[in-house]
Task: inverse folding
């Protein structure tokens, strides 16, 4: 085990027992190896076909095999550990938030941290109502002991980036001003985190950079970012992408097609939405450093994106950001959405992270 990412001794001391950070040297070696020119891989030239999407004549997109969705349950008489309800953010855009309130906070009237959560799905698929995310957020609210606001944002390719980032910023404004009692009574606004998994991790990151740069008093004060297997790319292939080129949970051709349909038309993957090492990205990290945010980045060696996640941790370190990398061996992209034990492990890591910086 190597303690890779500590820049703060006190933090190290406070959580050295409970919080195991492991980052095998293999990862580090990988990310340091120059990115050699690989033989270009042959992908289907039609990104819609590649992703099994149907582009209709009227310009809409049909997503076959829509995964199941779950309704919220807000009745306090229900015998449930966590209550949930949907609140509209902007009706004209179809954006809303599903709020998860642990029962214990309601019964005993105390305030909890707020986790603003952005779901994954390559910017193209899924919803805050999708059963996998509903269950993930329900269990997260209970296990991490936090209020969770899971944000429904607009999807590409109908709404290409930066639409999802704009929706994230609007959601933060909305959270600051919304008078719903679940937020006003039970949220500790000095303890707010932006979080996302996969494409949602990308949204939390870019929205976080924007919030930091704008220093906007209309959004809640952010304490940190929690980036679970964040979705990034670039025009050059990394070693882990080459090693896992056909990984069934995130094959490289699918990955490229997702970016092709979600980035603004005409830009390549070395755009700052997609590659955190280019453009204003590194300079904006300096602002996060000055604001004193904490960042948790998680990843695993079975995810083709792991080298990029390790690179992100190193980039933050070089810019003085207080970042914690939690990397595991094996596993795969999105494992916490399908394996409850892995989700539970992640909640434990998050809970320690949140309590250690308070
Ligand atoms: C567009 O076409 C699809 C498929 O034919 C159809 O289901 C959908 O209702 C249409 N949408 C609009 C806004 O016309
Ligand atoms: C909702 O979004 C529209 C379109 O961007 C914007 O003009 C409007 O001000 C927003 N509404 C609210 C209530 O913020």
Result:
């Amino acid at each position: 085990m190597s303690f890779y990412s500590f820049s703060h001794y006190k933090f190290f001391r406070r959580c050295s027992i409970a919080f195991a950070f492991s980052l095998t040297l293999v990862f580090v070696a990988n990310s340091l190896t120059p990115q050699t020119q690989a033989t270009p891989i042959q992908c289907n030239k039609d990104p819609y076909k590649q992703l099994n999407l149907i582009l209709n004549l009227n310009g809409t997109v049909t997503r076959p095999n829509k995964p199941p969705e779950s309704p919220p349950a807000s009745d306090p008489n229900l015998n449930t550990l966590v209550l949930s309800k949907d609140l509209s953010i902007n009706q004209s855009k179809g954006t809303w938030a599903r709020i998860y309130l642990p029962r214990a906070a309601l019964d005993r009237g105390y305030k909890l941290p707020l986790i603003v959560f952005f779901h994954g799905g390559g910017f193209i698929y899924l919803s805050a109502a999708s059963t996998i995310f509903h269950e993930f957020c329900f269990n997260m609210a209970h296990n991490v002991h936090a209020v969770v606001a899971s944000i429904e944002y607009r999807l590409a390719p109908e709404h290409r980036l930066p639409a999802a980032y704009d929706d994230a910023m609007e959601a933060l404004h909305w959270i600051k001003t919304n008078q719903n009692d679940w937020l006003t009574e039970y949220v500790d606004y000095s303890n707010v985190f932006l979080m996302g998994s996969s494409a949602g991790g990308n949204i939390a990151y870019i929205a976080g950079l924007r919030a930091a740069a704008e220093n906007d008093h209309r959004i809640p004060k952010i304490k940190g970012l929690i980036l679970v297997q964040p979705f990034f790319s670039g025009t050059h292939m990394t070693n882990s992408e080459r090693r896992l080129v056909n990984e069934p949970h995130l094959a490289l051709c699918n990955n490229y097609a997702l970016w092709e349909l979600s980035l603004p038309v005409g830009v390549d993957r070395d755009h700052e939405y997609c590659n955190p090492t280019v453009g204003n990205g590194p300079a904006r990290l300096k602002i996060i450093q000055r604001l004193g945010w904490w960042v948790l980045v998680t990843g695993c060696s079975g995810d083709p994106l792991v080298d990029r996640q390790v690179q992100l941790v190193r980039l933050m370190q070089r810019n003085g950001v207080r970042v914690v990398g939690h990397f595991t061996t094996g596993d795969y992209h999105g494992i916490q959405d399908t394996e409850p034990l892995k989700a539970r492990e992640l909640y434990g890591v998050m809970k320690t992270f949140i309590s250690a910086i308070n």
